[in-house]
Amino acid sequence: MSRTVYVNGEYLPEEEAKVSIFDRSFLMADGVYEVTSVLGGKIIDFSGHIARLERSLGELDMQKPAAFDDLLEIHRELVRLNEIDEGMIYLQVSRGSAGDRDFVFPDPEKVKPTLVLFTQNKPGLADSPAAKTGLKVISIEDMRWARRDIKTVQLLYPSMGKMMAKKQGCDDAWLVEDGVVTEGTSNNAYIVKNGTIITRELSTHILHGITRAAVLRFAREAQMTVVERPFTIEEAQDADEAFITSASTFVLPVVEIDGAAIGTGAPGPMAARLREIYLEESRKAGV
Ligand code: PMP
Questions:
Q1: Ramachandran category for residue 45: left, alpha or beta (phi over 0 → left; psi -120 to 50 → alpha)
Q2: Which among 105, 63, 61, 78 is positioned nearest to 14, based on CA atoms?
Q3: pLDDT digits (tens, 9 = 90+) for 81-137
Q4: What confidence tier does 1 reach under pLDDT thresholds 50, 70, 90?
């Protein structure tokens, strides 16, 4: 069955949805996006994702495509039309199409942003087998641009990183810059040592994960110790546990880095507990 997607004010079957070949997102990667998950038909961490979207737009001097309430309404309508119980909603905003190719930004009075939303139906999303088996990651150099705090659609290097991991029989890659881990290709990275959760501090070097913010809040509320600082691959290989967070995976354990087993080589208890708390609290707070 074809999905219903949203393009610039219209709900359309995916086959009929169109964006100009001159759209700046296509020509220049001049666009930002957000991904929210759906659990039990409810949207998770919506206000956090929209706040980050507004920040991304602001940093790039791009116009807001719609008001918060309208965006929530569009998300809800797509969940309803596509009968999503568990899955994802992708929202993409580009600087629009000026009808030609030019490095110079178009006049925002004349060219409106392009707004596209689509869903992915993922029954069983919260029941991922990876939560029980854990992920294997490789480390690669972080060769992305220097404003990773802006959630742009420039996903080529993360995509290449995932392919490098797959080629080595692994699930994902952790990115390393100046000898320390920044984050995963599409998630934030954590280790646990002697009961302390360690994750890279917020800066322009990493995306400010919405799941990260929620998980660290829940960890602190549960009296777990959190330290936000950089760590090396060697430190991670020597940790008791490792895990990742993102809107589409929630919390997933990492059991191997560059072939070295983490802790016992099985998913650790802190990651399991945080996943449980995150899922429980998110389901309660979904909108
Ligand atoms: N870092 C990167 C590079 C990402 O692509 C993502 C997922 N979009 C994250 C971290 C996690 O962010 P969030 O928890 O908001 O999904």
A1: left
A2: 78
A3: 999 999 999 999 999 999 999 999 999 999 999 999 999 999 999 999 999 999 999
A4: low
The pLDDT value recorded for residue 59 is: 98
207-250 per-position pLDDT tens digit: 999 999 999 999 999 999 999 999 999 999 999 999 999 999 99
Residues in the chain: 287
Residue whose entry in the numeric block shows the structure tokens 């569009």: 74
- For the chain, give every residue range classified as CATH 3.30.470.10: 4-122
Where do the CATH 3.20.10.10 domains begin and end in the chain?
A: 130-285
Q: Is 151 known to be catalytic?
A: yes
> Which CATH number is 4-122 given?
3.30.470.10
Is the CB of 207 inside a 6 Å radius of any atom of ligand 1?
A: yes
Cα 86 to Cα 32, 39, 170: the distances in Å are: 24, 5, 26
Instruction: Give the dihedral sign, CA 10/14/17/21.
Output: positive
Q: Say if ligand 1 is within 6 A of residue 48 CB.
A: no
Q: Is the shortest distance between the CB of 246 and ligand 1 below 6 Å?
A: yes
Whole-structure pTM value: 0.97
What is the homologous superfamily of the domain 130-285 according to CATH? D-amino Acid Aminotransferase, subunit A, domain 2 (3.20.10.10)
